Structure formats: structure tokens, C-alpha cells
Amino acid sequence: MAKSASKLTILYCEGEADGMDAQAASIQEAGHNVKTAVGRKGAMDALKSGSYDLVILGGTMTRDDRHHLPYMVKKSHQGTKVLVMHTDGGRHPYVDSNLDTGSDIDHLLEKIATGFVREAVPST
Description:
The protein is of the alpha/beta class. It contains four helices and five strands; from the N terminus they run βαβαβαββα. Helix 2 (39-49) runs parallel beside helix 3 (63-76). It has a single domain (9-55, 69-115), classed as Rossmann fold (3-Layer(aba) Sandwich). Helix content is 37%, strand content 18%.
């Protein structure tokens, strides 16, 4: 797994804590700052206390949470991108990208690297 050239601040949310730490560790190893949250309340608390370049809504989030939270992310932080790990995320107007549920960590890291890498600021 190659490190990213540009570090993002990512909020990674799941509906269940099982497996979340391993996923978050892989994203961190790819060179990003990662905060985790469990469930809608955890995600909302994290959005109130910090700002993020990207919010990932994992496959264990409920359908209602995957529908409600993208709107709340954009309302809280307009420039924050939202990636939903479920195929129905592509139909939501506030979702920037989606990935099939069950995709492995390598596909998630590739999606982050190709779709959400922050532009490097040229040195002056």
C-alpha cells in the first residue's frame, strides 16, 4: 500500500465498531489523518467538534444514516466531500462518490487517492 502524496483529514464512520479500527489504521498508514465515529450520534458529535476534508460513511451505517448524514455534513462544512460505501450513495445529491458495499480496503484507498487528494499548493 503506497503512501498518499497529500494528507487528508478524514472522518470514518461505521454503524458498528467491529472492524472499524483496522480500516482506519489502513487509511492512516496510507498517509491520512483519521478520526472514527460509530453511528449517527458519533458522526454528528465529530462534525460539531472538528472539520474534515472527507467523510466516509461505511457499509454498516443504516440506510437512514447514509441518507441523512451527507446532508448534515454539507450543512456543517460545505466544502467537505462525502464518500458512501454503498451503491445507493450515487443517487444522493450530497454524496460526492460511492463505493460498493464489501469493497476491500485497497479499493477504498484507491478511491480516496483518485477522487479526493487535495491539490498541492505550489511553493513560492
